[in-house]
Design a protein that fits this description.
Catalytic activity: DNA(n) + a 2'-deoxyribonucleoside 5'-triphosphate = DNA(n+1) + diphosphate
Domain DNA-directed DNA polymerase family B mitochondria/virus: 7-239
Family: Belongs to the DNA polymerase type-B family.
Structural class: alpha+beta
Oligomer: single chain
Shape: globular
Distance between the termini: 71 Å
Organism: Temnothorax curvispinosus
Radius of gyration: 28 Å
Protein name: DNA-directed DNA polymerase
């Protein structure tokens, strides 16, 4: 008889766990069980409360399970609370039942707190709210907005706060109440829709996976032949990201700098609509049987120019002089390439040559996931608030991740509070599969053991098939629609998994979209948009949508994968750098920095602040990061610095 009490923290794994895990392990009796990512990072941890045993026997006891709410709802409390209608804040309203509606509104939004200002207990005795500049955050390089500071001042005065310590208590209490309301509404919506309570789970992918299994009744055959497992694993490659054309500028009648004497060009950003919701098994086939094949393929030289922007059959390879493998789209011949049969059909139709079939894995296929996707789509349509609409979208997206779970990454970490005994540190360290240890304090150590066995209990062939067939949608759009339509006037500037940025030489790209509107989701265009674009095909999986919704993209600079920028008329520049925090990119990196990096082949470094934990000691650190680099090893950069070629292209000098 185990009574499990889940305790939810917001961002437990990333922050709060570092402060509480040592106290939880040592301050009262009972063991701690981990669901670890590493020795210092945990998805969840549980404390067995020894004092709850009956008559010295473990027949009834309580286990406190500490869980991260962010693993279910990956957004800030402020954003999540804004999705809820006021009548849904039942816990907050009950706690402040004596307040007027106007006063209660003060607690329906997340407050602000001067974290950096409070550097000692004496600051908590301040009897006046600190000035706005003390609400500056070293992490975000921002001060509280005037609106947020005004809200904090209203709370301080309305509730006659005596000092900053009392304000701190009120701030924390409001956070906890909002989180409780958010998660209880999440539980209510999930229980009503799927008949399962998410409080019994650790993450949203785990929950939606069980909900899908329960609703569809599907039963997967798990692979028992290790050769089959390894075979399918070789076909899992992830999404392709690359920069093909490093600079492009639009010249059309919508652009203020339009030069009528030059060719008319458009920059268009197309994104595949809900690729995770695209049910790969519903693609028409001739049979209820499908195949995963290991083949040798030849890439004919006469395809090199046509396929230079988006080569078929990407592979994981090490680039020149690098140890890390990357997903590369190359024009090399493919040897022992594992692929789904629909990808192979597409490759052969587009001109690649099949030289040998080495192995074939045959499987039965049916549209088993369709009913679950349609359920969530219908629930999303009927949802009465933004909170539920976002929830049902997440339920579809998250189910895909569970099909790709890599059980090899699971680790065995034990949190130990004593040296001797059967489960003490000494016994674990002397095991032959001992890996490493981290000493957090005199009475707390984490010990990692090498796993003696790996249980392959995930249907990875599902995830592999979805990933592979999703790629066919991008290739189909480019080679079966864009290339025949625009021919050599169509260039891909950037590719990222399910999206394409094009440079098009055409009189009016938007008029062309209107003619072929059945291929696009245009539902997010403004009602009276300047292009006269009809608003149709809302959220139809597998269709392309204009990411800018009719706004005019005027200029693009791409340095390499995950490092690009573009300008939009009458909007802020869009800037992306994978390894640098968004607030740093927004404030310190300019569009011109990208241009100069490209033109002058010069790297740019910047500083950013972040929270780091070392042995559960949390510190705010400032670090120097490489922000912009002109070097791209995924493709060959030509002498002009703007054009690139895929590796294996016949024009690359040997």
């Amino acid at each position: 008889n185990v009574y499990v009490i889940p305790v939810f923290f917001y961002n437990l794994s990333g922050y709060d766990a570092h402060f509480v895990v040592e106290k939880i392990a040592n301050d009262f009796k009972g063991g701690v069980d981990l669901l670890p990512l590493t020795k210092e990072s945990y998805i969840s941890f549980s404390k067995t409360v020894k004092e709850t045993q009956t008559n010295g026997k473990w027949d009834r006891y309580v286990k406190l399970r500490f869980v991260d709410s962010y693993k279910f709802l990956a957004a800030s409390i402020e954003i999540l609370a804004s999705y809820l209608n006021r009548d849904k804040l039942r816990i907050t309203r009950s706690e402040y039942a004596n307040l007027s509606a106007e006063d209660l509104d003060l607690f329906t939004r997340k407050g602000v707190f001067p974290y950096e200002y409070v550097d000692g207990a004496d600051k908590l005795r301040d009897t006046e709210i600190p000035p706005r500049e003390t609400f500056y955050s070293f992490l975000t390089d921002e001060t509280a907005s005037e609106s947020d500071y005004k809200h904090a001042t209203r709370v301080w005065r309305r509730f006659r706060v005596r000092d900053l310590g009392e304000y701190s208590d009120l701030y924390l209490k409001t956070d906890v109440l909002l989180l409780a309301d958010i998660f209880e509404n999440f539980r209510d919506a999930c229980s009503a829709s799927y008949g399962l309570d998410p409080a019994h789970y650790y993450t949203l992918p785990g929950y939606t996976w069980d909900a899908m299994l329960r609703y569809t009744g599907v039963r997967f055959e798990l692979l028992t032949d290790i050769d089959m497992v390894l075979f399918v694993e070789r076909g899992i490659r992830g999404g392709l990201s690359q920069c093909s054309l490093r600079y492009a500028r639009a010249n059309n009648r919508h652009v203020p700098t339009h030069d009528s004497s030059q060719l008319t060009t458009y920059l268009m950003y197309y994104d595949l609509d809900d690729p995770e919701n695209f049910d790969a098994t519903t693609v028409p086939t001739d049979s209820d049987v499908g195949y995963i094949l290991e083949v040798d393929l030849e890439y004919p030289r006469d395809l090199h120019d046509t396929h230079a922007d988006l080569p078929l059959c990407p592979t994981r390879d090490k680039t020149l002089g690098k140890r890390q493998e990357k997903l590369l789209a190359t024009l090399y011949d493919k040897s022992r390439y594992v692929t789904h049969y629909q990808n192979l059909q597409q490759c052969l139709r587009l001109g690649m040559r099949l030289t040998r079939v080495r192995r074939v894995l045959r499987f039965a296929q049916s549209p088993w996931l369709r009913v679950y996707i349609e359920l969530n789509t219908a629930l999303r349509t009927r949802a009465s608030n933004e909170f539920e609409r976002n929830l049902y979208k997440l339920m579809n997206n998250a189910v895909f991740g569970k099909t790709m779970e890599n059980v090899r990454d699971h680790v065995d970490v034990r949190l130990v509070t004593r040296w001797d005994g059967r489960y003490g540190a000494e016994a674990l360290i002397t095991k032959p599969n001992f890996h490493s240890r981290s000493v957090f304090s005199e009475n707390l150590v984490a010990i990692e053991l090498r796993r003696l066995e790996v249980k392959f209990n995930k249907p990875i062939y599902v995830g592999m098939s979805i990933l592979e067939i999703s790629k066919t949608r991008i290739y189909e759009f480019h080679y079966d629609y864009m290339v025949p339509l625009y021919r050599d006037r169509c260039r891909i500037a950037y590719t990222d998994t399910d999206s394409l940025i094009y440079s098009l030489e055409y009189e009016d790209a938007y008029e062309r979209m209107k003619r072929d509107v059945h291929r696009f989701d245009t539902s997010d265009y403004a009602e009276n948009n300047a292009h006269g674009m009809p608003r149709v095909n809302k959220k139809v999986p597998g269709l392309m949508k204009d990411e800018n919704n009719g706004a005019i993209m005027t200029e693009f600079v791409g340095l390499r994968a995950k490092m690009y920028t573009y300008k939009i008329l009458e909007r802020d520049d869009t800037k992306r750098i994978k390894s640098v925090k968004r607030n740093v990119v927004a404030k310190r990196i300019t569009f011109q920095d990208y241009v100069e990096c490209l033109r002058n082949a010069r790297e740019l470094k910047t500083h950013q602040s972040c929270i780091r934990s070392t042995l559960h000691e949390v510190n705010t650190v400032s670090e120097q990061k490489l922000a912009l680099s002109p070097h791209d090893d995924k493709r060959y950069v030509t002498s002009n610095g703007e054009e690139t070629l895929p590796w294996g292209h016949y024009k690359i000098p040997l």
